[in-house]
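Lab manual, section 2.4: Encoding a predicted structure.

Procedure: take the sequence of the chain (213 residues), apply the prediction step described in section 2.3, and record the output as structure tokens. A sample record is shown.
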Amino acid sequence: MTAETSQTLDRGLRVLKLLADTDHGLTVTELSNKLGVNRTVVYRLLATLEQHALVRRDLGGRARVGLGVLRLGRQVHPLVREAALPALRSLAEDIGATAHLTLVDGTEALAVAVVEPTWTDYHVAYRAGFRHPLDRGAAGRAILSARQQPMREPGYTLTHGELEAGASGAAAPLLGVTGVEGSVGVVMLADAVPERVGPRVVDAAREVAEALR
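Recorded output:
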């Protein structure tokens, strides 16, 4: 901490980060131990965050991230989109297929950035804002794969005909980006994805992840 920073704000942000990293919530005692402050301070922090809907407490007293963070999160999409566009453009032009960045939005996959190739005679029309279940399509399946094996080396997922008849997809998860869960992929009109596409998508996902760190 320096003279220009706020200790209270710093602690509040640390609370949010700790809660974001757990699925089952944390008690006041657990937060107190992790922060190295007494329980009274934690109570005050939680009460303030609750007023802004950034934290909620269940009947058992465990604190969890509140729905208010979703309103803040929606403003992140344009920033993420801007950071990802150079890698997506390169991927779309290199492969000759529509490239996309997809993020998790609740229980769905949401395309937040899409780049179409400029030199092909035809390609799949895929629009930003398109949603689909996480368990359908390469983009969602790549995200689920990363959830199931978080320590695995980056890989890619291939699908065919799951979202659009005659279309195939390849996607790789974004890894190592705190607070962002998503994937980078391509969709093309083909019966099968060419062999070189998978590794190229992995490289693009790595480029996007580096741009977001």
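Check your result against the sample. The radius of gyration is 20 Å.
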